[in-house]
# Entry
Amino acid sequence: MTLMQRLNPMGPLQLLGRSLMLPIAVLPIAGLLLRLGQPDLLDISFIAEAGKAIFDNLALVFAVGVAVGLADDNNGAAGLAGMIGYLVMTAVLGAIDPDINMGVLAGIISGCIAGLWYNRCKNIRLPDYLAFFAGRRFIPIVTGLTALALGWLFGWVWPPIQHGIDQLGQWMIGSGSAGLFVYGLLNRLLVVTGLHHVLNSLVWFVFGHYDGATGDLNRFFAGDPEAGRFMAGFFPVMMFGLPAAALAMYHAAHRDQRARVGGMLLSLALTAFLTGITEPIEFTFMFLAPVLYAIHAVLTGLSMVVMGLLDVKLGFTFSAGAFDYALSYGLSTNGWMLIPVGALYALLYYGIFRWAIVRFDLGTPGREEAAAAASAASGEASPGERGPAFVAALGGAGNLASVGACTTRLRLVLHDSEQIDEPTLKQLGSRGIMRLGEGHLQVVLGPIADGVADEMRQTLERDGHQPEAPTARQPGDPGEQTTAESDEAAAPALDEATRDRWLSALGGRQNLRDVSAVALTRLRLEVADESTLDREALSQLGVRGEQALAAGRLHLIVGDGAARLASALAGTA
# Structure
């Protein structure tokens, strides 16, 4: 985790929200197997047991998935450590108090421990007689020891915490319409920050108990007749309301622009209807019309209330789309009521959106300024070209400190968020951009986000091995690199005291084998022994992040003074 991420108080929660997407991604196949194997469908017990196995071990799945998601390079060693941590923690808890049930939270905590230890110690060096346990092999060991200590601690402090969580869950479950409305409202409002995943994890996997299963989602598929109320209300909004909003945007578009935006809006509407992925639609109006989005959040809360009053109980393993509706219908209560409620919501959304867009002249798709429309009309990059194109539009490789993704968004940390080229990002397929402060940026792309993030990381990896590449130049700004270099040349030389502080933090003159500047903002170092680096001192000297390349080789992100600093240190190497 970079220094910039640590400075942003929202950063850790956003990172956790992103990491939760990896284990959640296995739920659709688990739900499919569990449902198909039931007596009223295929009646094949081993298929049902295959799906049940995933739900029965969901905490372990979260331990592995969260650890891998938090690890800087998504390495499997973090996942192994997460599993070790979970097994140790649950064993210790069981020995202290068999009645303690942390459920999925134990898996999430174990995954967080493993991911954080991995990022901190993946390159650790040990004495020669312990060298076998150095590096990534050290992570499961230190995670297990940490889980041992936390297991002992939670064994004594968790019972009152568990009681508090149970009370909160009982309030939401037992408060009827009020609890349903609050949950539906907060679920949509938190989409802006990405923290809705954290709220959902509590409601779907923690609150409530039934025959060993916890959470509304788990209890629904375990056969709890009272489960499904905290999922049913999403179906009218996602399957009917937001697709109707997309139709309203199409009808409100200028006539000469309808052909251009029709295909895009149709794909967004179908995605929401079939799969329940709604963020691409929501980001077309979230920032253009915040009041409209607030109304959407209120309507979601009201949908939860209406479905609750009608005693409708529905479930899903991924989201509230047609696929999940069909699969869970056999377990539902009054599932047919979705059709009339959904039709009403379609009319409601269409009317509100059509009126608001025309009345307030909102810049929804097809109503943008001519320049923006022309930019969007030029098309999106093909899969093989997306990585370099997105890296360039985000200010170049030197501007990217961290690249990640959740289901529908790129989650980025930038050195300078003012360097991004928003028209180009829109041309590449962006549905919205969120600036969260301290360089944190989210780009809404839809389901392709994770693939784009992978291609961007591959591009950055290639650039890291080609330091001569001018990666900091923005499109349409050919003189940027020359200007930056001339500014550095004009800057005063590094004073001797500061240079000595750098040498000390880098393990001394004898530890530094080679140093050069990369992509205007990074030092590329080759050192004899990485364990002698004083990372706290480097942070005080202005290092914003570190990227390991190979044994003894790494990048330090230092900002615009990289070339001057490299020149001062090069003579000592």
Summary: The chain is about 55% helix and 10% strand.
